[in-house]
Amino acid sequence: MYGITAEWSEDKEVLWFRGKIYVLWNADLRRRVVSLCYDTKVAGHPGYWKILELVSRNYWWPQMSRYIGQICQHL
Questions:
Q1: What is the DSSP letter of 25?
Q2: Residue 34 burial (C-beta neighbours within 10 Å; 0-12, 13-18, 19+)
Q3: pLDDT of residue 41
Q4: Rounded CA Rg of the chain
Q5: Which end of the chain is least crowded, N or C, by CB within 10 Å?
Q6: Alpha-carbon gap, residue 45 to 60, rounded angstroms
Q7: Is 0.85 topped by the overall pTM?
Q8: CA quadruple 24, 15, 38, 48: dihedral positive or negative?
């Protein structure tokens, strides 16, 4: 892959950014990632900050916090 730097890596068809899985621009995929954190029994129904924290532990995409904020308004 072109443009791989110290921040980016690729492993078995997974693109990593700073050690986190990069989520491609796909509305359904991103919504699924957020729902994984929102719908957990342990988390209950957390607010914006908790969802952002849970998602950002393992995933990253541009403007992720804005996207999660928009999703939280509709949940």
A1: S
A2: buried
A3: 61
A4: 13
A5: N
A6: 21
A7: no
A8: negative
Burial 37-65 (b: 16+ CB within 10 A, else e): bbeeeeeeebeeeebbebbeeebbbeebe
Going by the DSSP 8-state scheme, the letter that residue 29 receives in this structure is H
Backbone angles phi, psi at 20, to 5 degrees: -120, 150
pLDDT (0 to 100) of residue 73 = 82
pLDDT at position 71 is: 86
Instruction: Decide if 43 contacts 57 (C-beta within 8 A).
Output: no
- For the chain, residues with pLDDT lower than 70 are 1-4, 39-45, 75
